[in-house]
Amino acid sequence: MLPAVTEITDHYLRVADEVAPGLVTGLHLTGSVALGAWRPPHSDIDAVVVTSRPADAVELAAVHARVPALLECVYLDEETFATQPADGRVVPFSVDGKIVTDRPCGNLNPVQWLTLRRYGIAVRGELPDYQVSLAELWNYNLVNLREYWAPLAERARRTWPADGDAIAWLVQGPARLHYTRAKSDVISKAAAGRYLAALFPQWAALAERVERFRENQVEMFTERDLDAAADSVEAMVEDAWAQWGR
Predict the structure, then answer these.
(1) 238, 231 in Cβ contact below 8 A?
(2) Residue ranges of the chain with per-residue pLDDT less than 50
(3) I need a surface site. Which of 88, 138, 177, 233 has the fewest CB within 10 A?
């Protein structure tokens, strides 16, 4: 694990143990850290936190007030964690250093559990042995492509700025879902860009520029790039549904 990540997670555990002794029994890293693709400042540190009891929003807010905002946690008590919920239910989670308790948690999905099962890093506690339903995984990816990404591409054309983070989100996000549906596995955002380029060479140059941007190299993007990124989203959605939508 990268030293910067270790420093942040160790600090988090010290603060959590001070604010709420005995609360945090498990800390498991997923996302880009687990996939070996953590790229600050573009990447967060995604974690599933297991608690000895249902966590209180006040104590969680006190913890996250003292922890870098890039550590984004989903909180599950031990009983809930044991069931690996993938239904986007309402549980406490952190975004930009703030605790959210009043809306569904989008990170509770089959892709999250597949990532944790195959690549997760246990900082505290042990990861359980469980299976991810391929049928649920495939269905989640297809539905998410159609219901989240396709409308997002259209909104992006009308309202989004042509900046690197926005374009990277469009270029790499749907490609990851397409790959997971095709291979029943998970890849990093950078690898997803290369996957897009292999499937649709017309966007290979854009995917390469996005990867350079996420490696903190200087890249300038335009409205034309934003439109091309939105086009790539639509192509990924259409291709996935054409192959597996039945």
Answers:
(1) no
(2) none
(3) 88
CA distance 228 to 171: 9
90-97 CB contacts, 8 Å cutoff, 24+ apart: 92/55, 92/57, 92/60, 94/60, 94/64, 96/69, 97/64, 97/65, 97/67, 97/68, 97/69
CB 149 within 8 A of CB 236: yes
Give per-residue pLDDT as tens, 18-31: 999 999 999 999 99
Amino acid of residue 126: E
